[in-house]
Amino acid sequence: MNVALPAFIVFLLLLPGFIARSRFKRAERASFDYSPFGQIVTEAVLWNCIFHCLWLLLSAVLFGRVLQPLLLLELLSSDPASQSRAVHGIALEFSWISAYFLTLYAGAWVVPNGFRLLITRFGLDRSGAGWFVPWLRFNQAPWYYLLTGADFEEGRRPDLIAVSAIVNVAGQAVLFTGLLTDYFFDVNGVLDRLILQQVMRRPLVADKENDATVEQDLARFYGVDGDYFVLRYSEAITLNIEYIKLAKVLAETPADDSAAD
């Protein structure tokens, strides 16, 4: 118990930081986090310090409960007698200590999610938004910014995102184009597939002539039947993203000429 108990206590103390870090970041990888080990530990420890300081402050202000450093040091020591005294002291305050850690873990799960939603909602991670962007930008999610238009200002964000891709079909290059609806990644964070609507296609050789009219340009394409078109990124030779901002048509209300003089 001399070694196992301190290790278990350290694990319980550090766990909130790792929970908070995992909930705050926006990552496209669902399996392993290949960030440098030092970066992971540093970020987790920083989150851990923030949450423990906040919870200890709330405990002292709202409930009059303060940290007992001597009890914690005895619990982390390798002396059996000191550990026994510390365990006895924890047993007397077990309900309170349990409530502290349960609410701490819940807060470490909920609060970073809330911060992430606020950052996304107000565009605080947008490129060029301010000096704080390097701290708030989700650097592990480059496709998120490209495929959602999150780097645009609030009033200039695209209403539609069009995707064009060249795919090799039976040895012939075919251009597919449609409106992006959703996108998915594999477990390693590699873009897996794009979900498109209103898809049209044409052979790449049927290129547009310089003096072609709009009707002639559209005649080169033909629609693809179906509600959704799944485009696998691994099969795309090239990918083109176009951001579309719809023009707002303001309806003018004519003056009421029939008003009485």
What secondary-structure arrangement, pairings included, does this model have?
Layout: H1 4-24, H2 37-63, H3 69-76, H4 80-92, H5 94-121, H6 133-136, H7 142-148, E1 160-169, E2 172-185, E3 191-203, H8 214-219, E4 222-223, E5 229-232, E6 236-244
Antiparallel strand pairs: 1-2, 1-6, 2-3, 3-4, 3-5
Helix pairs in contact: 1-2, 1-5, 2-5, 3-4
Can you describe this structure?
- By secondary structure, this protein is an alpha+beta fold.
- Helices cover 44% and strands 20% of the residues.
- It is built from eight helices and six strands, in the order αααααααβββαβββ.
- Strands 1, 2, 3, 4, 5 and 6 form a six-stranded antiparallel beta sheet that branches.
- Strand 2 and strand 3 form a beta hairpin.
- Helix 2 packs across helix 5.
Keywords:
elongated, alpha+beta, six-stranded antiparallel sheet, single chain, 8 helices, 261 residues, 6 strands
The gist of it:
44% of the residues lie in helices and 20% in strands. The protein has helices at 4-24, 37-63, 69-76, 80-92, 94-121, 133-136, 142-148, 214-219; strands at residues 160-169, 172-185, 191-203, 222-223, 229-232, 236-244.
The whole-number mean of residue pLDDT values reads: 84
H-E order: HHHHHHHEEEHEEE
Tell me the overall shape.
Answer: elongated
Unreliable spans: none
Q: Which band does the percent of strand residues land in?
A: 15-25%
Number of helices: 8
Q: Main sheet?
A: 6 strands, antiparallel
Q: Give the number of DSSP strands.
A: 6
Percent helix: 40-55%
How far from one another are the termini? 97 Å
